[in-house]
């Protein structure tokens, strides 16, 4: 069967339509998909688009950045409390993370309208603490169950300095004694 | 299945030139009635906008749960995909699911009509992660799949590679339009050359310009690809069942139906 292998000129449909019109393809030999395409054409004709080589001609269509008003609260939360203690479980679609609970509580307190912005953060943290979620500040030293053995904190240099000073004292006393 | 000594697995057989409907029909119905019935069978589905009710098969929530809206990062974005994107969340492209819904409905509708008319459908995907899934999908709907290395002359040199009088696919469905080196699959350009319409799932790093019915969506997540495979399988089976029903309805004999499927 006759065909047209020029994929860069026109669409599949226009080429076949023109071939039928000119008589190269007989109406009996019409392809199966021709009538279906005619009745239900795609939203955009599948024309070949030439790749842009010169960077000056590139006029970038803007793809909007997606930001929500809660993002400000989220930035504050992540700056203060780091990544949060509980890991995010993305397999569940209805999972509520620690940050999300913080955001919800913040908005709830804000809607009450009694507190101002500066103290809202602390109030939200206190409210969450009441519900049982402990928020640990970023950069704070971790709280250990047992305190470190004071022996471990001794430094060799200090010990030597002590010994030397002790040694000079004893020599002085012996000298005093001898003399 | 053709297996040649070079061991590339072409999972489809090109059927020989199809016997025309009217010749060899030994039934008692007159010829003019048979041709009229055929025309009616073929043209009736084109009158309704959604004859096969493909819009019922999926909803926006299904697409969201299957993570179809997740694109690649901003740096991988193809400039021609920009109209299909909803936005960019912290450098991750998000595909507009409203547009995806419309495109998917058009694509499924087209597939259904092709399957209804007895067209050959070829599933292509060069993603090795989903190769088996695509092959089983094609097997389940009685169509064909090609998930291995695409030889250069598969479509363009078919008469020499497979013998004269080979019938090419009437529709090619790409579950992923990229090959293993992140370039556009050769099949898209070849199908456009051979005047074969294509349906393709285009991700945010793909070129949708030559695909006849592009479906903007995620092609990397297993959940999304399973959803697409399921949808295509259901539409094709639905269309084929509908065809059998229509033929019975219009009272054509079993003889004529057998001859048509040779």
Helix-strand layout with pairing:
The complex is a heterodimer of chains A (179) and B (262).
Chain A lengths: L11 H11 L11 H6 L30 H12 L16 H15 L4 H15 L24 H23 L1
Helix pairs in contact in A: 3-4, 4-5
Chain B lengths: L1 E2 L5 E2 L20 H17 L12 H6 L4 E4 L11 E5 L2 E4 L1 H20 L4 E4 L6 H10 L3 E3 L11 H4 L9 E4 L11 H8 L4 E5 L10 E4 L5 H28 L4 H7 L2
Parallel strand pairs in B: 6-7, 6-8, 8-9, 9-10
Antiparallel strand pairs in B: 1-2, 3-5, 4-5
Helix pairs in contact in B: 3-7, 4-7
Function (chain B): Required for mitoribosome formation and stability, and mitochondrial translation.
GO molecular function (chain B): structural constituent of ribosome
Subcellular location (chain B): Mitochondrion
How would you describe what is shown here?
The complex is a heterodimer of chains A (179) and B (262). Among the domains of chain A are: 1-48, no CATH class; 69-131, no CATH class. Chain A contains 6 helices and no strands. Chain A has helices spanning 12-22, 34-39, 70-81, 98-112, 117-131, 156-178. In chain A, helix 3 (70-81) crosses helix 4 (98-112) and helix 4 (98-112) packs across helix 5. With 262 residues, chain B is α/β, with parallel strands linked by helices. Chain B has a 5-stranded parallel β-sheet. In chain B, strand 8 (171-174), helix 6 (186-193) and strand 9 form a beta-alpha-beta unit. In chain B, helix 3 (97-116) packs parallel to helix 7 (222-249). The longest helix of chain B is centred in the last third of the chain and has 28 residues, at 222-249. Chain B is globular. Classes of the chains: A mainly alpha (179), B alpha/beta (262).
């Amino acid at each position: 069967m006759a065909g047209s292998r020029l994929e860069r000129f026109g669409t599949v449909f226009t080429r076949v339509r023109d071939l039928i019109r000119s008589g190269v393809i007989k109406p009996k030999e019409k392809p199966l998909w021709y009538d279906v395409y005619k009745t239900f054409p795609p939203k955009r004709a599948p024309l070949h688009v030439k790749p842009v080589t010169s960077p000056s001609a590139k006029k970038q269509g803007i793809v909007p950045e997606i930001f929500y008003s809660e993002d400000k609260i989220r930035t504050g939360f992540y700056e203060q409390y780091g990544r949060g203690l509980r890991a995010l479980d993305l397999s569940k679609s209805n999972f509520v993370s620690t940050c999300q609970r913080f955001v919800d509580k913040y908005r709830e307190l804000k809607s009450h309208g009694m507190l101002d912005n500066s103290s809202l953060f602390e109030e939200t943290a206190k409210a969450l603490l009441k519900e049982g979620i402990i928020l640990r500040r970023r950069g704070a030293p971790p709280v250990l169950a047992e305190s470190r053995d004071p022996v471990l904190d001794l430094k060799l240099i200090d010990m030597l300095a002590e010994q030397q000073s002790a040694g000079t004292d004893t020599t002085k006393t012996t000298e005093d004694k001898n003399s | 299945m053709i297996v040649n000594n070079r061991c590339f697995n072409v999972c489809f057989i090109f059927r020989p030139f199809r016997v025309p409907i009217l010749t060899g029909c030994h039934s008692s119905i007159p010829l003019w009635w048979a041709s009229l019935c055929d025309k009616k069978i073929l043209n009736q589905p084109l009158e309704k906008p959604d004859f096969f009710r493909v819009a019922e098969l999926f909803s926006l929530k299904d697409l969201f749960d299957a993570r179809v809206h997740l694109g690649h990062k901003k740096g991988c974005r193809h400039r021609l995909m920009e109209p299909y994107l909803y936005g960019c969340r912290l450098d991750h492209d998000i595909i507009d699911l409203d547009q995806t819904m419309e495109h998917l409905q058009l694509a499924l509708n087209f597939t259904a009509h092709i399957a209804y008319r007895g067209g050959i459908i070829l599933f292509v995907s060069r993603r090795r992660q989903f190769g088996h899934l695509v092959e089983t999908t094609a097997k389940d709907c009685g169509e064909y799949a090609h998930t291995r290395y695409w030889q250069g002359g598969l479509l363009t040199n078919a008469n020499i590679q497979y013998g004269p009088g080979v019938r090419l696919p009437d529709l090619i469905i790409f579950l992923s339009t990229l090959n293993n080196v992140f370039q556009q699959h050769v099949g898209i350009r070849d199908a456009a050359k051979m005047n074969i319409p294509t349906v393709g799932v285009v991700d945010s790093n793909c070129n949708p310009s030559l695909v006849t019915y592009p479906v903007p969506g995620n092609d990397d997540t297993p959940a999304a690809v399973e959803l697409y495979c399921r949808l295509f399988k259901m539409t094709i089976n639905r269309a084929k069942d509908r065809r059998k029903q229509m033929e019975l309805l219009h009272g054509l004999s079993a003889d004529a139906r057998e001859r048509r499927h040779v």
